[in-house]
Structure formats: structure tokens, C-alpha cells
Amino acid sequence: MIESxxxxxxxxxxxxxxxxxxxxxxxxxxxAAGSPAAGRVPRREAGSAxxxxxxxLAALEHRHLLGMRGFGGEEIDLILDTAKAxxxxxxxxxxxxxxxxxxxxxxxxxxxxxxxxxxxxxAEKRLSADTLNxxxxxxxxxxxxSLLDTARNLEAMAPDMIVIRHKAxxxxxxxxxxxxxxxxxxxxxxxxHPTQALLDAFTIREKKGRIRDLRVAIVGDLLHSRVLRSxxxxxxxxxxxxxxxxxxxxxxxxxxxxxxxxxxxxxxAVEGADVIMMLRIQRERQQGGAFPSPREYYNLxxxxxxxxxxxxxxxxxxxxxPMNRGIEIDSAVADGPFSVILEQxxxxxxxxxxxxxxxxxxxxxxxxx
Amino acid sequence: MESLLVKGGxxxxxxxxxxxxxxxxxxxxxxxxxxxxxxxxxxxxxxxGARVLEAAGRIVCPGFVDMHVHLxxxxxxxKETIETGTRAAAAGGFTSIACMPNTEPWNDGLxxxxxxxxxxxRRGTINVYPIGCVSKGGRGEELAEIGDMVRSGAxxxxxxxRPVANSYLMRMALEYTRIFGIPVIDHCEDRxxxxxxxxxxxxxxxxxxxxxxxxxxxxxxVGADLALAALTKGRLHIAHLSTRGSLEKVRxxxxxxxxxxCEVTPHHLVLTDGAVMEGDxxxxxxxxxxxxxxEDRRALLQGLRDGTIDAIATDHAPHHLDEKLQEFDDxxxxxxGLETAVPLMMDRLVRAGVVDVxxxxxxxxxxPARILGISKGTLEVxxxxxITLIDxxxxxxxxxSLFRSKSRxxxxxxxxxxGWPVATIVGGRVxxxxxxAATR
Lengths: 369, 440
Fold this sequence. Notes:
heterodimer; A: alpha/beta; 4-stranded parallel sheet; 9 strands; B: alpha/beta; 8-stranded mixed sheet; 30% helix; 23% strand; globular
């Protein structure tokens, strides 16, 4: 099911890849920063996506990072391997490399964000890119300008990449259709938050050495969570065994068809888990009435020390933040020995550096050299 | 008035059980004579001065009737006007349309109904029948002056775009309209369930992270309406029915003798919610009711075959490009349909073997005319000469840039379809003729 969807999506994107762009390298040249058109551009021989790779991928096949759906294991490995190389930069006394010097990146955040936005900004600065922050309070959006006009005006200033956070699912796809820049989805409505899933995967790989065959429990508000969707797509592609848990009022329709086990009981979900990923109760997105009170939610779904004991002894506890302490997670767990929540934040910078670098046309080989 | 000879076409007129090659002689805007076509001997002689329309190889059928159109005038002329909407209808093979009352102001009384009727006479290309509001201002509080509107030409009432949410008001409407014998057309939607939803709730909405509208939102309202129709014996017509559950409820109610009819749209017959994913959040796949899943779509096709569905209506909902060029969540619901309905149905229903042409003519001409109580939908002698000619072999791609409609919001741009309307005749006057090599 999921596999055939992906194939269709690839076909759709390939059909769309038609708009030429001035200033790109000629076809056949090394992977370029500005390849033609939206979506996936095969950089190896046609049809290679379906074949087993003879060697690791050198460069990204996608032109944009709109979501994890449609990303293959090789591409994910490439991003994580590249992130590993960049992680070292952040430990240096001078945390800066000239890799993206002369590139302009717009951080277009239409929804409040502290963590993701700062993380992208730090990543961009450590790569020596020029950055522009653009948010509703400081922009013409409050004057009623449409997303399309705003995007076109940003484009007119010729940025190389646009990082977008938006309340509407599909807003990054909208930009990708109408802009020449590379688009990075930093969270769109309840759809996807791909860099979060990538940094989660990086953290898991660092801690566990692998992702394949790990039992990952994801618990919380599944309905409104873009982190959930990106993680499901990524973890399934990487061969993890995913179980999700939340109140039935916060589970989207036919979620099991995404290839996960679904339960309403947290004790079942965390049983034998290698990884427990807690999702935030998004009170600002609730229509209201999905559960009677935070107190009852905590009793039924909160991650407590007792519940963690059901997991494997070397379990890691993750949370994309910001946390509602005492609602979805007990402070004793959040700050406890199994928690890797702050490491996730640290890794976020390295993963975002990797994404920016690879979308700009970089290769892991160049970086190592 | 001049006379017209429609010569040598395959005349399909379900009302008279006709399916044969005939010449139709039109005089003074009426069907004057129907004669067997002469075939090789040259056939009927046209009366002196009569125009001859060669129809060999064409289907000649009663003009199509679209009982669910939004003409947007008065008040939203940037989307559509009576003039452009009727030209689009003529180009799409429609000779009569009924227009919904959710204009600005709403058509809830004499003034707006008369405005539409007179504007349609002055600038319209085809017949326009206004549908009045059920309630004043479409607010769902108290009955509008339905008698006034019927006297001015309204053929049905509806608060379309909004459901009649209040069961008491719906009961009053179904009872009160019995005076006039007109149907109450309801947009069935439980808004407490559909609130903020933008697409069908199911696998695809989950993958795309879009807020869903469950099938139950429609089915609950259909169930309530059917109960009230059974209670009142008023004439209920369900607009743009879209789920298998709704269809089953209608089927059972009809077995119980409840006076109910229903329509489906072409887009619910050919597209599913998968189109939202394939289109990468294309706002032209956003409509209400939303595109449903494949099982629903198949059930609707079965409903066409077994007679549960009475009519196909476009729910032509023009929106300006700027309005649709937004985030999926913010774009308005609806697509245009007048200029794609006939070729879509010829290609995807008739050519695909779902129904035959005769049944399609019932669904798109005879039945909607009967539901609205207008004397259209037939080619019997003495009937109004409203005629649509279809070339069943003509193949062409949908090109929204050629639309007569002011709006271009169609998900069918670029679709290659076979079976297009090539001439439209209203009251004996040729109001549209497709100018292509194939039609000469």
C-alpha cells in the first residue's frame, strides 16, 4: 500500500519536472545547487531509484525537503552520515565552516517557533550562509498579503533556499510549485516536520547504533502531530517496528494503514520499547473535548517512571518539545537518566546543517575531502 | 421565426422511448415534425428558408438541464455573471440551468428572483430558473417568502452552501412547499462534525495532515431529512449526494415510499480523495462535499445503474483565480463544471460502459426537468426546441483557458475526453456551435 503510493508520487513528481532554470549547471555535470524544477530529479541513471544501490548515494535525489514520505533509505542514510560529519563542527572552538558562503537562506516562519527556528538559524550561520528571518509580526502578512505574493516577493530577492513553517498543511508544496528556490519544510500544519524526524533518527542511531528492528513507541496527540507523520514515514522506511498510542479522540482515521500498530493503552505501547517518543498535547490546536482534563490525560497517557520500567532497560526517552510537564510527561522522566531530549536539540543543528548543505548540492565525498 | 432542420442524427429521447435516426423540423421554437431520415436518398426536404444542421453521426437529444449551478450574480460578479455562466452552459451542452440562491444578497424574495429572471432574459444565452432560499437570508431561522419567489419564477427552494440545520425549519419548509409542488433541495451536512474539515476523512487526509470531513456528516443530515420527508410528504431533493451510506438511506426510504430524489456531481463520479494527494494539495480538488473514497465512487456508479440516483448536476461553483491560489486550508470549496460535465460523462460513463446514452440523457435532461417541474427534457412534437448535439467520437483535451466561464477552477485541465457537445439549440435558435474541423 504505502510502497505503491510512493511509486505513484515519484511518477507524479517526475512528470512535473520540466521547468528549466537559468544559471544551473549543464545536465550531466556534478549535482548542482539549482537543478531544474520541482520535486525529485534523478541524478543517476533513470529508474535507479527502484534498483538496489551498488554504492552509497553521493548526493540527494530530492530538490526540496517537503516531507519524509517518498524519501528512500539511501537518502536518509546520506543525510544522517552527513550530519555526523557536521556534528563535529559544533564541538570546535570556532563553530563555523565556509561551506555555504554566498548562499542566501530565508527563514519564513508563519507560526510561532523557538526551537526549530533557532536551530535552523544556528545551522545556517555555522555554514556561513546569509540569513533573513521573516515572520508574520514583522511582515506584510499582517497587512493581508497572500502567501503567493509574499513568496514571489521573497523570490525576487533571489534566495537559494526558503525554510518555511506554516499552519496550513501543504504550504511548502505550494511554495515549491511557485518558487525556484529549494524549499525546506520546517513544519506544515498537521502534515510533516521532516527535519524533526531526521534529528530523531540521528539521535536514535547515535544511541542505538541502528534503527532497523528497534521497537519505537510514539505516544500522545496523534491527530495534530506533524512530528508523528514524519517519524512514521522515516522509521518505516528504515525498518523500525512502530507502535503508536493515544486517546481514540486524538487518532486520525485509518492511521494503522500507514504501517503502524495502534493502541489506546500506554502500558502496552511502552512494553519492551527501545525508544519512547512522547508527543506534545497541542492545546492550541484542540477543538476542545478530546479528553476531559489534563489530569485525566496524565493518568491515562502520561509517561511516568513506573511506566518507563516496562520498556527495555536501555530505553531512550525522546520529546520534540516544547514539553507540557505533568501532562504528557513526568519531570522525573524528562530529566531522568533515560532522557535524550536535550541531545535531540543538539543534534538538530547538525542534521539541519546536513540538509541545507545537501540541498545546496553538496556531497558527502566533498565534505570528507 | 426561422425554421431549422436537424438532419440525420441519432435522436435519443427517453420521454418518448425514441432511439432512431430522424430528422427534426423546428418551427417557431418548437419541435414541429419528426420524420424518418431519408438516408442515402437525401432525406427530408428543408422548408424554404430553413437552416439545415447536418447531424449525421451525432447524437441528438433533449437539451441538458443542470439543476445545480452557482451563477454568482448578483454580488460576486468577479467569479461569474448570468451572462458568462449561461454562455459556459451553452458551450457545455446545457439549455436550462437552475441557479442557487447563495448570491449577495441571497435570493430570498421577489426582488432578487425577478432580477435574475430579467437579467437572464436580457443577457442570458439559455433558460435560467432561479432557486429561492428556504429561509430569509439563508440564515436558517424563518421561512423566506416562498410564494413570492415561485410567482416570480423560482422552481425550487434551497439554502445551498448551508444545510437547513434546524429540523423544525426543515419540517416547515417541506410542508409549506406542498402548496406549490416544488422540491426542497438540501445540502446535507452536519456542521458540528464537518467543522473546519477540508477534505474527506480517511487514509488520505491522515497522510496529508488535513482536517477531515467524515462521511457521517452527510449521512446524519440525509437521515434526518428523510425522516422529515416521510413525516411531511413534502418533496425532498438531496443535492450532491456523495457517500455510499447516503445512497443506501435514499434507496431504503424510496422503497418505503418516501418522496425523495437525489443528484450526484460528475466530479464525485470520476475522482476520489486520492486526487488531493496526486495534486499535491491542489485547491481545485477541494470541494464540499469532498471527493470521497473509491468505494463511495463505485457505489455511486451502481446508483446510476440501478436508478437510485435521479440526476447528474454539476454544482458549478466558480471562484476567482486569486481565491483558489491559496493554501489548501484557506481556498474556497468548489469547482466549475458546466463546460466539462458532458464530455466527462460521455467518456467516463458511456464509453466506459457504466450507463448507455439513453440513461445519461435521463440523468442529465429528462429527470432534472421533471424534478424541477419544468416542461423540458423531451423532443416530442410540440415541445420546446431545446436540443443538444453530441459528437460521440470527437476527442479533445479540456483546456480551461478556452472556458466561457469567468473562472478556471477545474481539476480536469488537460484531460483528454471523447464525446463532446458540438451544438446547442435553445428555443429553435442555435446558441452554440463548436468550431472545429471535426464538426464541419
